[in-house]
Design goal:
Shape: globular
CATH architecture of the largest domain: 3-Layer(aba) Sandwich
Largest sheet: 5 strands, parallel
CATH topology of the largest domain: Rossmann fold
Strand order of the largest sheet: 4-3-5-6-7
Structural class: alpha/beta
Strand content: 5-15%
Radius of gyration: 24 Å
Number of helices: 10
Number of strands: 12
CATH superfamily of the largest domain: SGNH hydrolase
Distance between the termini: 73 Å
Helix content: 25-40%
Number of domains: 2
Length: 411
């Protein structure tokens, strides 16, 4: 009997030690929720300011606005996108416009949340198919060669959804280098080079891919001391990598040529998708913040709420981006509806994640009302009404409905 007691006590001690070790292991891998800011300025707010001597903005010239020539080229391409059959031939009756994702774990987690959101969107073009082709564990080092297994996965995903490589016309790309160690700007240069190789592979593998939107990483401050996968400052600096790649195409670099009138095509037309880096709980100019709860325990990958932020932002982006509206949005819908003959409505910022300012001039003597509607045409917020003042007016909407609740993106 004493021996049995000794064994029982020993087993209990071992179990307690196991539980303690398990708790310690979990604690060691918990997000660093104290890292609510790293002090960097988002590219959209940095402007003419600099980071290690490099200016901000999403495009050359420290601006967030696409250069006119590049913008016009993108619009022309977007307007030429039509439904294709699986052999890549135009088929307006039965064909599809296929939008895919390309990238690593964060990309597939976020885009797979976006897919059902887009599928249920009443404003989506009914000829549009949205297919998640990103895959976990596939950093740029894994997919930057044409023979990488990842590209077989992309083709298989397309076929599994009744599509084919010749049917894909638009891609959303979100990628990163695994466990980077180089200092800036070398680390961002390496990512730029990898992304350049990847978009050229995309053109070779998916020859009808006309447009690629790129998004850099979201905040990774909560990974500080927890994960070396892709912590700060690399997540922030990935924005410069995307900026430099797009800037190189704008500058006319031959290896990124997209216009057959200017030489052999090497790449789709490149532009920014939604820029989603914000300094933790420090709000950027449009109000975006990242909470620790928006990430899983490694502080790197998004939780359900983090995935939803990205998915909502993607939906809002595709509805408001001038080069996506021709093919993403149903032709039966419009972004702004004006019932009077007054001056057109101006909205800024567009898109916006927080408060937006709406400026307009009603027609003299004509009653008017200003309402915020969702994509299904349902009223979200009644802002103002009047009897026909012929003077410039402005109203601000703070992103809340009539009940005072914050609304999601896609309004």
């Amino acid at each position: 009997m004493p021996g049995r007691i000794t064994l029982a006590v020993a087993a209990l001690v071992a179990a307690l030690l196991f539980v303690a070790a398990f708790i310690c292991a979990r604690a060691a891998h918990a997000s660093n929720c104290a890292a609510t800011s790293v002090g960097f300025v988002p590219l959209i707010d940095l402007g003419a300011g600099t980071y290690h001597g490099f200016p901000g903005g999403l495009y050359p010239g420290a601006t967030n606005v696409r250069p006119p020539a590049h913008d016009s080229a993108g619009l022309a391409i977007a307007r030429a996108i039509v439904p294709l059959d699986t052999l890549g031939n135009p088929d307006p009756a039965n064909g599809r416009i296929v939008l895919i994702s390309i990238g690593m774990s964060n990309a597939t987690q976020e885009f797979s949340t976006f897919v059902p959101l887009a599928a249920s969107d009443p404003g989506r073009n009914p000829r549009l198919n949205v297919i998640d082709c990103a895959e976990g564990g596939q950093a740029t080092q894994d997919i930057r060669t044409a023979g990488a297994p990842y590209w077989d996965t992309v083709a298989a995903r397309l076929r599994a959804h009744g599509s084919a490589p010749l049917q894909a016309q638009v891609a959303w790309i979100k990628e990163a280098r695994r466990s980077p160690t180089e200092p800036f700007p070398a680390s961002a240069d390496s990512l730029t080079n990898d992304l350049g190789t990847i978009v050229r592979i995309l053109h070779a593998k998916l020859p009808n891919l006309r447009i690629a939107y790129l998004t850099s990483r979201i905040y990774a401050g909560y990974a500080t001391g927890v994960s070396t996968l892709n912590p700060e400052p690399y997540a922030y600096e990935s924005g410069f990598a995307v900026r430099w790649l797009i800037g190189a195409q704008i500058a006319g670099v031959d290896s990124l040529a997209f216009d057959p009138a200017h030489g052999p095509v090497q790449s789709p037309w490149l532009s920014w998708g939604p820029y989603l880096w914000a300094d933790g709980l420090n709000p950027r100019s449009d109000g975006l913040v990242w909470h620790c709860a928006d990430f899983v325990s490694d502080g790197t990958h998004p939780s359900t709420s983090g995935r939803t932020v990205v998915a909502d932002s993607l939906l809002a982006f595709f509805h408001r981006e001038s080069t996506s509206m021709p093919w993403f949005v149903s032709h039966a819908t419009v972004s702004v509806e004006e019932h009077s003959t007054g001056t057109g409505i101006a909205v800024a910022p567009n898109p916006g994640l927080a408060a937006i300012d709406i400026a307009f001039t009603p027609e003299r003597g004509s009653p008017w009302r200003l309402e915020i509607l969702d994509l299904g045409g349902r009223r979200v917020r009644a802002l103002a009404r009047g009897a026909g003042e012929a003077a410039p007016l402005a109203r601000r909407w703070a992103g809340r409905d009539d009940a005072g609740q914050t609304v999601r993106a896609g309004i």
